[in-house]
UniProtKB/TrEMBL annotation:
<feature type="signal peptide">
    <location>
        <begin position="1"/>
        <end position="19"/>
    </location>
</feature>
<protein>
    <recommendedName>
        <fullName>Aromatic hydrocarbon degradation protein</fullName>
    </recommendedName>
</protein>
<keyword id="KW-0732">Signal</keyword>
């Protein structure tokens, strides 16, 4: 299993080197960027449904599920994203490959433990604006960086029907933004000003969870889940540099620069409450739904002088499930595949020009078992739309392909023979 882990790491790390920015969305201009993490591939392809306690997959959004692990699990996932941007007058395309998560889950009787890394949010935008007049002024806005989470969690089987759990997360990262303003001069020389901002981010937050399942009859089971994240604070160590620049044939040279003292700030991570239910036959099929309430109104921009957007409380609806024709089939590999599908709709909480930015997606997934093991390759497809092309905003039509590798095996077993 160690060799499989090493091979998967090499594969996914080579994929992520294709693009260092995890997003190309202009909406990552606001707050701490575009929230990238939406769960492991197996749950993400069910519209984000997190009600099922899986014995071989690590659930990264409700720590109570850790108590259901029966095998040590190593999970890693990545996404290749293509996005088409549209406004009323223009359009463009972008592609990104990013690492989604890296985690280990270890069962220990009624307990389950996890440790991992999640790239939580990402900033990666390039925006140009033109103010027309006798002397046209161009503005170019760029940003890179994001927030990562290192976490450790524990789940406990309180009764045969109830699991509880909690995890703690350390958030860290750097966000760099730049605003370049210039006017067209003579002899292809453009002069202007450049403002650079940098925020080093750190802080802690915790998650709590509980799950419930009970037999309805000899075949069917009812599932319930509850996950709660209290509000937390991220501390931002801010710096700013102002420069007078000359731009000649696309090359920017600094004439004079000065560091500006700016106050260190804090930004709130919103509280979140997710409630879900499901119904189905274990190892056969499941359907369920989940509602997530997020107190995004506490969010703010990184610098108080950034205008044009506010945040509101948001809600996300998830509907999905899976189907396995025959998980123990010896005659057909296709009957052992887990087929997943789902729908997701959310009000993201971002409001621009009094218009709420919404996101809708349809998902499809396949859990491909590896012969002779409990391990799986999970493949996910996601097609969706965020925002609108009207009201001077941007509509994003995206298609994502996600690959998750989940290796499950027994660890820490004493050998009977040397």
């Amino acid at each position: 299993m160690i060799k499989k882990m090493a091979a998967s790491l090499c594969l996914l790390l080579s994929l992520t080197t294709l693009a260092q920015e995890g997003t190309s969305s202009p909406y990552s201009f606001y707050g701490i960027g575009d929230i990238k993490f939406k769960g492991a591939v197996d749950t993400r392809t069910m519209g984000g449904l997190n009600v099922f306690s899986d014995s071989i997959h690590i659930n990264l959004q409700n720590p109570a599920h850790l108590a259901s692990l029966k095998l040590t699990a190593f999970s890693v996932g990545a996404t290749y994203a293509t996005t088409k941007f549209q406004t009323e007058t223009d359009e463009g395309k972008a592609r990104r490959t990013s690492l989604d998560y890296l985690a280990v889950g270890i069962p220990a009787g009624k307990l389950g433990f996890s440790l991992g890394l999640v790239p939580y949010s990402s900033v990666g935008y390039k925006i140009q604006d033109l103010t027309e007049g006798d002397s046209p002024v161009y503005s170019r806005y760029t940003g890179v960086g994001g927030v990562n989470k290192v976490f450790t969690g524990i789940g406990y089987q309180l009764t045969k029907k109830i699991n509880i759990g909690a995890d703690i997360q350390y958030n860290f990262g750097t966000i760099e933004t730049q605003n370049l303003r210039y006017q067209t001069g003579v002899d292809l020389v453009e002069n202007g000003t450049r403002e650079k901002n940098e925020s080093d981010i750190q802080g802690f937050n915790v998650d709590f969870g509980a799950t419930y399942q009970t037999k309805v009859n000899s075949k069917h089971t009812f599932f319930g889940s509850l996950a709660y994240t209290p509000e937390s604070t991220l501390r931002l160590n801010n710096s700013r540099n102002i420069a007078v620049v000359l731009i000649t044939s696309g090359t920017t040279s600094v004439v004079e620069s000065q560091d500006i003292d700016v106050a260190d700030t804090e930004i709130k991570l919103p509280s979140k409450l997710a409630i879900g239910t499901g119904y189905g036959e274990v190892k056969k099929w499941l359907v369920g739904g989940e509602v997530t309430l997020i107190n995004n109104s506490v969010m703010s921009n990184r610098f108080v002088d950034i205008e044009g957007a506010t945040f509101e409380n948001s809600v996300r609806y998830s509907l999905g499930g899976y189907y396995i024709p025959n998980y123990n089939s010896y005659s057909s590999y296709f009957k052992k595949i887990t087929y997943r599908a789902g729908l997701r709709y959310e009000n993201t909480g971002l409001v621009i020009q009094n218009k709420s930015i919404t996101d809708f997606a349809a998902t499809l997934g396949f859990g491909l078992p590896l012969s002779g093991t409990f391990s799986k390759i999970n493949i996910g497809l996601e097609m969706g739309k965020r925002g609108t092309q009207y009201y001077n905003l941007v509509e994003e039509n995206y298609f994502n392909i996600s690959v998750g590798l989940s290796f499950s095996d027994k660890w820490f077993v004493k050998r009977k023979f040397d």
